[in-house]
Amino acid sequence: MGYYLKGTLKGALCSDCIEPLQGLVLKAYALAPGRDVAALAVARTKDTFEGVADADRDAKAGRLLAEATIDANGNYTLDFSKAPNYKGEAVELDLYCATVPRRKNQEKLPPPMQFTLTVVQPMWREIRDDRIAAWDYTIPYRIWCGIRGRFGAWVICGQVRHCETQSPIGGVRVRAFDVDWLQDDALGDGVTDGTGHFRIDYMASDFTPTIFPWLNLEWTGGPDLYFKVETLGGVPLLAEPPSRGRDSDRENAGPCFCVDLCTGEQPPVTEPLPVFTRLGGYPYVGGIQSAVPGSGLTVGDNRAFYSTVRLNGILSKTLSGQPMEYRFEYRETAADGTLPGPWIPVATTQFAATMLGEVERFAPDFPGDENPIKTHPMVADPGTPVAGPGNAAIVDGWIQVPQFSDYNAPNGYFVPNGNMLNVITPALVPQPALNMINVIAGESSTAHGAALAQNRHISLRMKVRVVGQPATEVAAGTCFHVAIENTVYNNVHKGGSWAPVDLPDQLCACSVDSLQLRAGGCAGLNAALDVLFTAAHPNLGAVGVRMNGPGGPYGFGMPAPLDPADQFGQAINGAPPPGGGWTFNALDDCAYIVKLTAHLLLTTGDSSPLPVQDEIAFCKK
After folding, report:
1. Prior bond to 553 cis, omega within 30?
2. Going from the N-terminus, what domains does the chain have, and what CATH number goes with each?
3. Burial class (CB in 10 A: 0-12, 13-18, 19+), 583
4. What is d(CA 333, CA 480) in angstroms, rounded to the nearest whole number?
5. Taking all residues of the chain, what is their mean pLDDT, rounded to a whole number?
6. pTM tops 0.70, yes or no
């Protein structure tokens, strides 16, 4: 049995600006003898946070139980399997910092630093053969910004709004400056996202030097800040005077500075903002249980997504008036949407050709042509990534939106239809095939060693940017949680003992047979009919058996399943409706067909699979 402590670690820069502690190392130590475990475990983390001197760090090295590097989303997993004597007791958690996230460069780093966070008594829960616990924490901004300052890594977080409407302004560039005696220091710039938020990272060395090495007029500890806001094309929207940096709320800014900016000018709008909103016909807000924690299934009919899914929304040609490109990213999550992994770009091998819209041209073939407007599709096809009259360019996974905008020109006018990507979900999260070899009707699908299939769970998001300009990259719609199921079932027994065959590549396990036919195969039945069935799938809908023949159809009752995903056993003759109350002996001597039907709660977003069936035939004599 293994012990795994999982969670997220982040640092606060402002109340609405939180960063994952990517690249830092979380260390778990056994407690030193004699410490009050109960008191330490209930103490507030902000009261237990303290620096660890180098000598103390070396002294406690012998008590190290586990360590983990924090990923890009702040996630970590402490695996205690290499500490054989660990039995789930309280641990002391330290944070080891060789640098800090998004430091502008890694030159002239100070010596590594270590800090004690807290003592945690994990609340373990058993999952299969392991014990899992969770601990999440965000370091308060006063502490975290102090640590960043020790590494010379300074940051500005803020938001740009319209002064009158207070609506956020996305897709504009914010430049930060420090007022200096002889010349102002340009500290850096950032582009606002769809909520108007931006971030600028810079170094202490960006504002301390002057043009004279022997003269440093930054008498105070931080820069005196003022800002300029402009469109990505360089059109000014806000230009604060340098004197603004001498005001009390801007003077001597600390390692983390939070600012709200407003401008009376709105960037010129020539197109709607691009946004990903749907998987097929399902809006992920309202149509899918995509809020965390949720099932990730569709609302109302509880379907998981499978096969190739059409991602769509509003697709515009430009971003802030310049040619736009986009791509999708995904990450795996837990079954309830928590514990997300790192974002991974959807590769060209993971999506299929997608019709983005149509190109129209005014091109009459002759005077008086009744069809003067000609159209043809515009496709984003990984197999043809070079731009052409009917193909969008795909460069490093980024799809460049065609810019054709003149219906009188040879290239015509491109009209987007909202389709963005036909994503091949089995390629995103491959699921192992299940082997139903030797499983016969009436048995559980797991009777011969196969496992029950489980839905996989992912997040999806769209990223957009000005073509070839990474600094302009912003998120444009995120589905935080969606369930995916693409398990293939092999060697599924079909035809019972009447016409037996084992089939590959089935959507589910679905088999029917008769106990009497097992004895004779094609023998006629004259005394009884006992129908056996097996149907298994993690998103199994209605399962039913019926019989066609003279006087039919005839219904069967279904036993209450122990597991809705794995239904098996013997159907009940004569259950209404239809055909209620029938008995085998009352049937006419003739041929009959017994059919098992299993409905699957799956969707591509646009269509659902047909019910899966199996059948047997017999003659009553």
Report:
1. yes
2. 3-149 (2.60.40), 152-263 (2.60.40.1120), 275-432+447-484 (no CATH), 489-619 (2.60.40)
3. exposed
4. 9
5. 91
6. no
